[in-house]
Amino acid sequence: MSIKEIKSEDLNPEEFINEKCLALVEETKGGIAVNALSGGVDSSVTTMLAHRAIGERLKTYYIDNGLMRAGESDAVMHTMVKLGVPVELVDAREEFFTALKGVTDPEKKRQAITDTFYKTVFGRLVKESGARFLLQGTIFTDVEETMAGIKRQHNILSQLGIDTQDVYGYKVIEPLIELRKTGVRMVGKALGLPESVYNRPPFPGPALVTRVIGDATPEKIDLVRRATAIVEAELADVNAFQYLAILHEDRVTGVYQGRRSYGNQIEIRCWDSTDAVVAKPTWLSFDLLEKMASRITTEIPEVVSVTYNITTKPPSTIEAL
Ligand code: XMP
Hints:
The chain is α/β, with parallel strands linked by helices and 321 residues long. It has helices spanning 13-28, 41-54, 72-82, 93-100, 106-129, 140-147, 164-167, 181-190, 195-198, 218-235, 286-299, and strands spanning 33-37, 58-64, 87-91, 133-135, 171-173, 242-256, 259-272, 280-281, 303-308. Strand 7 (259-272) and strand 8 form a beta hairpin.
């Protein structure tokens, strides 16, 4: 891999910010750049950095793909407005669900997200805004895992030989590509982002699609969204790296209100990790596990089985896709 990593112990956040601001001014050459904000740490840091560097020449879009967590779109918009960064919400729910319809293969699901995001939605936004650049918060780990053939992260393009200028009609700029998550958080703090943003647990670009095994229909996304809200509420204080709910494709027999029901299975994952490259399941108390199982099966009657993942990464991965 030709990109050189900046390790967090070698990072001076202020110097990094100054250098990247100068580079962004140079790279965008007075033109308009569009920016893909998802609300995650990486994209929020990219947004603040670029806002500082090129101000009004930055057009930030939040794409509502219908795949985000409960209340997430409103929360992301609100945070950025409070920080004085103008953001436009684009409703692309139908485009994403149309592209995902009937797709069950994990890599094809990732590809469907990539195509919809870069070709359909950003292709259109770039044309409408007259921009020539797309800014995004790709980090070193994303490139590393894709190049190692582990997973094709949705945001990896040029490193796979894709000429974005040719294929999508714009150049992609990735100011955080030399950093891992710890470094990104340090830069976010130095940029004045609130701790709730720079210390936010990671959330993948393809969003809840990475947590539905098989066909990601609107109904399944809605089910995993409700389970996610419960898991996130119950695990918010355990100080884990990441925690999530996964909806399995297989159904299992259960009992609901005294009758046989053929229901869904939710798997809970909670990870201890520093950089998502290796991870271990968090040692949770059985009381807490029981409480989550009880809440999930009570509040989501379509679910009759809840399990907790006890596998490390590797061989597991953090998400299910
Ligand atoms: P995995 O599942 O590969 O996840 O162990 C490693 C870390 O990356 C996040 N992740 C993604 N982030 N685009 C992203 O921006 C993706 O396609 C993607 N897939 C996984 C995951 O949440 C974890 O923090």
